[in-house]
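hey team, just a heads up i'm posting the complex here instead of the shared drive bc the drive is being weird again. everything in one block, sequence lines first with there labels, then the predicted structure for the whole assembly after. its two chains so it's a bit long, scroll down
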Amino acid sequence: MADDRREAMLESVALYALGVLPRDEAAFAVAFIANDDEARREYEDLRAAADAIAHTAQEPVDSATSARMKERLLARVRSDAAAGTVVPRRISPAYPAWLWGTGLAAAAAIVFSLVTVVSDVNVRADLATTQRRAANLQTQLAQNERSSARDRQTLADLVAPDAKRYQVADGSVVLRQNRLYFALTKLPPPPKGHVYQAWTAPKGSTVMAPGPTFVPNPGGVTVVPLPVDATRVGVVAVSVEPEGGSKAPTSTPTFVRPLT
Amino acid sequence: MDPGVRLMERVSARDVSAFESLYDGYHRLVFGIGLRMLGDPTMAEDLTQTVFLKIWTAPDAFRGGSFVAWVSRVTRNRALDVLRAKAVRPETEIPADLPLEGALDDDVFARLDAQRVRDALAKLPPEQRGLIEQGFFGGVTHQELARRTDTPLGTVKTRIRNGLRRMRESLGERVS
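-- predicted structure starts here --
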């Protein structure tokens, strides 16, 4: 990669660390981070500095607001606890499950909850209003979360320390849990009328199944999530195919990479 | 160890009192980030409720590392979601909510306080500091920062990178 291009990518790494990079460009920065040791070190350093800025936001909250927010939250939390809402969780060894497995905890929580809710009519009315407002906000957030969760998962996977990375000539193949990605940074543009296409073969097989088609950005960078269960994939490949893709590779693969 | 990490272990076990302690310890931070980003106390309050409810209902989303850093990123991402829902900001992306290898040591991060970070920020040239603070709390892209400050895009990128590097060096010196 040319020096000026590399410097530009390192600047993008800094922008990503601060959180000011648009989402589409963030994917390219993450692909670069995933493939470049210096970029990874720079990202870790700069993200630590950026994270620290949060400390300066600590804001004195007036006691009435603080109490109101706490009341709203704890009413909900105690209600959940009383209802025995189950969420996936780690159980801390210091707090064995049996402490919470009895009806005592639930009964205590119900009592707390009742006392809280009926103790002050004004607080209750305020709770209802603010909880409706929070519910509306939650609905809005849920809609946005659905659209952004996959993107965030991709970015998280690509920079995750526990991700497995398989080097290929144009970048790397990244595997994390059951998810698989191409993070390519040096891919030349495909010939006119053609695209790149991903291929996967199950473990123990050489039969390639067609995957998504893609083209890199002008800098040769692309991130491609593969819609497969990564735990079942033995080999991945990329080839140049006519636009629209092919059912089987029609050209010599750009790379073939066993995931071993 | 970051006290937030210990409390999160107990929150994962559905310990309401630990959750209450977590709220007492960190709601000013969450509210403060929300207020800086959303500019409205009511929205910041709702955001605080949303973030802490998320912590209660999905504690496994925290996978270790610095709790302060994690909850800050969660809060910023939630605030960005709110801004997107209101369609008043372009889409930026906050780095993933994951612990880092080789980042500021978690205990060190936990010991950092607002004054130390403010000091580190204050040591930056104003043009770097302004961009970094607006970037962190503004929920805007670097292009928008360039437009707002009437600064060439390349200059914005360089200033942000150099500013973050100087901050990192400064924080490293202070905590060594």
